[in-house]
Amino acid sequence: MKKKYLFTITMLLSLFCACNDSESWINEGSEKFLSVAEVGFSLKSSDGTSKSFFEEGDEIGLHINSPQGTGYNKLNYKNSSWVLQTPVSLAENNTDIYATYPYDLQNNVATSFEIEHTSQTDYLYSERHSVNSSNPVLSLTMKHALALIEFEFEWMDVSQAAKLDFISIQGQGLYSRAKLDLITGRMEHLEGWNDPAIIYGWQLNSDHFYDGSKVSLMVVPVDQVECDGDILVDFYTDNLKAHWPVPAGTKWESGKKYSYKVLVQERLLEILDVRIEDWIDAGTDGISLPWYE
Question: Is the pTM of this model over 0.85?
Answer without folding.
Answer: no
